[in-house]
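User: quick one - fold this with zinc ion bound?
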Amino acid sequence: MGKLLIHGADLMTMCEDTPIIHDSAVVIEQDEFVFIGEEQDLPQEWTYDRTIEAADQVIMPGMINTHNHAAMILLRSYADDLPLMEWLEQKIWPIEAKLTAEDVYWGSLGAIVEMIKSGTTCFADMYFFMDETAKAVEESGIRGVLSHGMIGVGPNGADDLRIARQFCLDWEKRADGRIQTMLGPHAPFTCPPDYLGKILDIAGEIDKPLHIHLSETLSEVKDIQKQYGKTPIKLVAEVGLFEHPVLAAHCVHLSDEDFEILKAAKALGIAHNPQSNMKLASGIAPVQRMLKEGLVVGIGTDGASSNNNLDLLEEMSTAALLAKIGTMDSTALPSGECLRMATIYGAKALGQGEQLGTLEVGKKADLVILDFKKPHLVPRHNIMAHTVYSAQSSDIMTVIVNGQIVMENRELKTVDEERIMFEVERCAGELLRR
Ligand SMILES: [Zn+2]
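Assistant: Sure. Structure tokens for the protein plus zinc ion:
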């Protein structure tokens, strides 16, 4: 396969030295960027298999959703506007107990269609029937960092350990390297210390990072305090969690001591989920302080049942607005920082900062082309601010993952969108009747 040239766009590279390039050229060969720069500097002798004209368009790195439960799109708007524990215990958990592998397959594909159409090229997921989500990732061309969620307090704790370990062994680096695997202890309140210890033994044995929910709600912090006399962060630290690479979702309620523990962690990424935290009234995560103190923070949607979509453009805007009102400081979390959270910081949070997150020669070719010839995107004073505060997912025209065009001019190239929407409706309907 020869080279693909995309030229004429403004680039948001998200690199530190050259954040914006005008009149640009991007050249992709196989799964990598081989040229990123001004069109006038292209090597004269190169020829191209394909050329995409991108005048009036803006190109950014593919966005990275650092925390999701993809198949939960089946429960989108199934239960809303309820107190958190009532939402979980009376609505979500009982219906999740009836989910089948087939449901998770179609739910995952439905989520992937939605993610590609809103500019996401990589997502971190924790759920069950993960083999099905992995198949959906393989078929669709998106990138996934997948973990089987483990719950030690229920009847399936021992099975979960075995399934999660086997999932990692079966799927790591599959789908041309687009699949990465993690172990997924659900949370401190569902994985008590002795059970978490067993998971960490497996993590050591097969050398895997961990994806976990931490300090999401005040009631979680209070209950753990009451039971163990310490915060959830301190509890899991004492079991040895942070001696492994960790992707921690939420971290909304943190003490000063928690901050010190997190800063001392071996390799930690935090997934900030502003819309889910707002919708479930969990609280406002101290993102400003995390970034200031050098923690790596990516952005996530969480599952669609507490969001209710998987749109990272919207999530960036919410992150910025929430940080500003949360600190009563309008300079908090500027647009450039939100874009870094959705790209390079997200890549680092997943341990993939060397391969993903910026438009840079040698990195994997994951990108998004936005059409800026839109009423809400003129005049073009600041393309970063436009992308965070004004752009909509319908502005996203073309998406490339690992060098493959997965959407072109809003048409999906790898999967059948109509069929997937039909199957999602069917599975959701059957689930309610089961
Ligand atoms: Zn979650």
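One thing worth noting: The chain is about 40% helix and 25% strand.
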